[in-house]
Specification:
There is one protein chain. This protein has two domains: 184 residues, Glycogen Phosphorylase B (Rossmann fold), CATH 3.40.50; 189 residues, Rossmann fold. The protein contains 15 helices and 15 strands. The protein is 41% helix and 18% strand. By secondary structure, it is of the alpha/beta class. The strands form three sheets. The protein has a seven-stranded parallel sheet, with helices on both faces.
């Protein structure tokens, strides 16, 4: 039987999108011929993947002109690329994929990484949010047609879209592949001066609404700790300026996955303090949560439903209430820095008091369940179903 070809598309530059990379790898291992289409930014790093990648250079890089140009350019490629199915990642790639699938009479799989109209960048921008909501209102009911399928990252989002559109979505969680034991232990030397301080680690996109500023403000009250931020994003430069002069805040910038896998297990506490910026954050389960669990690192996280479900089920972290969000000012009321420092110190003391074997048992169980090895079967089954 001739291997089936599938074309996936995203609006990012492919470098740090681990969910899409995991999906591509799973499809390739299952025998599909994979092509991944994204974009190339002026400073995009080179990539070397075992599947074909295409990165388009665009004239526009943000807002409406970018999305219009991207979808038009993507549509032209999809119309003339040899493939047996289309795979749209997120709502912002769906228009081009939908049109191409209808014109070419090919199956379509949609993967909602988030509730796109609810992303923090659209909170406080009702006209733009309404535009993307209209796109979903038009396209999502049509994803129930023959030879279409849909997956999303958590049951909460699947339930919302089912209630809103009658759309049935399988759940493929944003969880990593298990890390080999030696990957957790092969680098016991920190890539920075630490002086015995406990590491508080944030890893992922350095964007608005991630609570990074709150932790930075608490660091003067935590001289026994160092706050390490591994990642880059929209507010990275702003936070670098904010960290100037601090001796216990370290901005590492972009860290490649192999290096991050060695760094993460060295942390004493993983940080994931989200603001309540719309339903997308409220129902999120950030992949850093599962990354910390895979590395055996306890988590301090905001008490949102999907995060609560994981932390409580496996007893692998501590939950804190989100501070009130002021919709008019489009920002949260920051927590008191000294009180947050107290919470962090109390959490560290608690986890340091738990016997090593008990900690290992908790994290081993959680890591086994929160693995893409379990979820990729759902992805492959959903994909296979659209061919019939």
């Amino acid at each position: 039987m001739t291997p089936r070809r599938i074309v996936l598309s995203v609006t990012n530059d492919l470098v740090t999108d681990q969910r899409v990379h995991r999906s591509c790898t799973a499809l390739m291992e299952a025998g599909y011929i994979v092509t991944l289409i994204g974009r190339r930014l002026p400073h995009s790093a080179d990539i070397d993947r075992p599947y074909r990648t295409v990165r388009m250079r665009l004239l526009f890089t943000k807002k409406a002109p970018f999305y219009a140009e991207y979808n038009l350019r993507l549509l032209m490629r999809l119309l003339f690329t040899r493939t047996d199915a289309f795979y749209a990642n997120d709502t912002d790639t769906l228009p081009a994929n939908w049109v191409a699938s209808r014109l070419r009479k090919k199956p379509l799989l949609f993967d909602a990484h988030e509730m796109f109209p609810e992303v923090p960048e659209l909170v406080g921008r009702p006209r733009v949010k309404h535009f993307w909501k209209r796109i979903e209102d038009f396209l999502f009911p049509r994803l129930q047609r023959h030879r279409c399928g849909a997956v999303t990252v958590c049951q909460s989002i699947a339930d919302i879209y089912h209630k809103r559109y009658g759309l049935k979505m399988a759940v493929v969680r944003n969880v990593p592949l298990p890390q080999p034991t030696d990957a957790r232990q092969d680098n016991l030397t920190l890539p920075f001066e630490n002086d015995g301080r406990q590491i508080l680690l944030y890893q992922g996109a350095v964007n608005i609404g991630r609570g990074i500023e709150w932790i930075m403000d608490a660091m003067p009250y935590l001289p026994e700790c160092i706050f390490v931020v591994a990642g880059t994003g929209d507010i990275y430069n702003e936070l670098c300026a904010r960290a100037q002069g601090s001796d216990n805040i370290l901005m590492l910038g972009r860290v490649e996955p192999p290096a991050l896998h060695r760094l993460t297990p060295l942390a004493a506490l993983g940080m994931s303090l989200l603001e309540n910026r719309g339903l997308n954050y409220y129902y999120s389960l950030p992949n850093r949560i599962a990354d910390f669990i895979q590395a055996g690192v306890p988590v301090l996280a905001t008490d949102f439903p999907e995060i609560h479900r994981v932390i409580q089920q496996y007893a692998v972290g501590t939950l804190v209430d989100p501070p009130p969000f002021d919709a008019e000012k489009n920002t949260s009321v920051p927590p008191d820095p000294e009180q947050l420092a107290h919470t962090i110190r109390h959490t560290l003391n608690y986890w340091n008091s738990i016997p090593k074997n008990e900690r290992q048992a908790r994290f081993s169980r959680a890591a086994k369940d929160l693995s893409f090895q379990n979820d990729k079967k759902t992805l492959l089954d959903t994909l296979e179903a659209i061919f019939h």
